[in-house]
Amino acid sequence: MEDVGCEPDVITYNALINCFCKYEQMPKAFEFFLEMKNNGLKPNIITYSTLVDALCKEGMLQLAIKFLVDMRRVGLLPNEFTYTSLIDANCKAGNLNDALKLAKEMLQVHVDFNVVTYTCLLDGLCEEGRVNEAEELLRAMIKDGVAPNLKTYTALIHGHIKDKWMENAMGFLKEMMGKNIKPDLLLYGTIIWGLCSQSKFEECKLVMTEMKDCGISANPVIYTTLMDAYFKAGKTKEALNLMQEMCDMGIEITNVTFCVLVDGLCKTGLVQEANNYFSRMPEFNLQPNVAVYTALIDGLCKNNCIEDAKKLFDEMQGKNMVPDKIVYTALMHGNLKHWEFQEALNIRSRMSELGMELDLHAYTSWSGDFHKVA
């Protein structure tokens, strides 16, 4: 621009800074920020707000606060965009009290909350288990003429489900749909997760049907969540039917799916079936990861198949996988049950070398098994 006699102005610099912030190139954004100041141009509220927002999204909260201090020093007042960026970042960092202080400051300087501000605060309250305050904030939001959106209701519904208030969560879902706000895949998944956690399988089926009627297909996470809940409720047939449904409908089957499947079958004593599914993983273009190996080794040990577990452990190590504490603990107990005392001690020593300490449950179990064979 300068080569053709055009000097960049504040608008030009703001556009450049915004572009580099958008593509997460903060050093370049800072370079242009300093350049505009060196050229005698004063950064405005847009300049500062853009940088504050980008820093917040990058997790550089302390630096964002320094820019907030700097903008005040030069006589610029933060707007709703600036405040909301900082409130959101503080909530996500678990600094709810700091977020609430910023919200209070907004009110004191007569900067109105927008829907994003309300949603960030509401989500932060829900994450801290303060769902009653979140409900009050929703009512205040509506009273102030700010319409809640899908993200607002999703945060509120998730918060209530997390705190076991399923009935209230469904009430907010009904309220939301009454305002013609349609749930998306994320919200449906959250609701199914909540219903599964309370073994409300008939309601789950209704929600799954509703999803299909709305043209939304359940994803692998939803299917796997439901499968896990079926296994935990002792509904093995229903869990296996879901696996078949995933295959029939072309739903992606992941390592997480197989982990749930293998673990669920082992815990119901169907070790051979678990082994069969484990062997079929290559058919789905999958190789078992540490979690799947762990589920099967643990299941084999608990079902008195210690030799098969040892072979699987060797296979796992042959693939340069690092066994975790669950694997070592399972093998240790499995060996003790089969009177392989020295081998159990060797595993315990190996765990100590790796810095793996037994938790209270494992230690109590170890002591009990030890006394049985001693």
UniProtKB/TrEMBL annotation:
Alphabetized InterPro entries for the sequence: PPR_P_subfamily, PPR_rpt, TPR-like_helical_dom_sf
UniProt key word Repeat: yes
PPR repeats: 9-43, 44-78, 79-113, 114-148, 149-183, 184-218, 219-253, 254-288, 289-323, 324-358
Keywords for the protein's UniProt record, in alphabetical order: Repeat
Top-level taxon of the source organism: Eukaryota
Family membership: Belongs to the PPR family. P subfamily.
Name of the protein described by the UniProt record: Pentacotripeptide-repeat region of PRORP domain-containing protein
Organism in which the protein naturally occurs: Hevea brasiliensis (Para rubber tree)
Organism phylogeny: Eukaryota, Viridiplantae, Streptophyta, Embryophyta, Tracheophyta
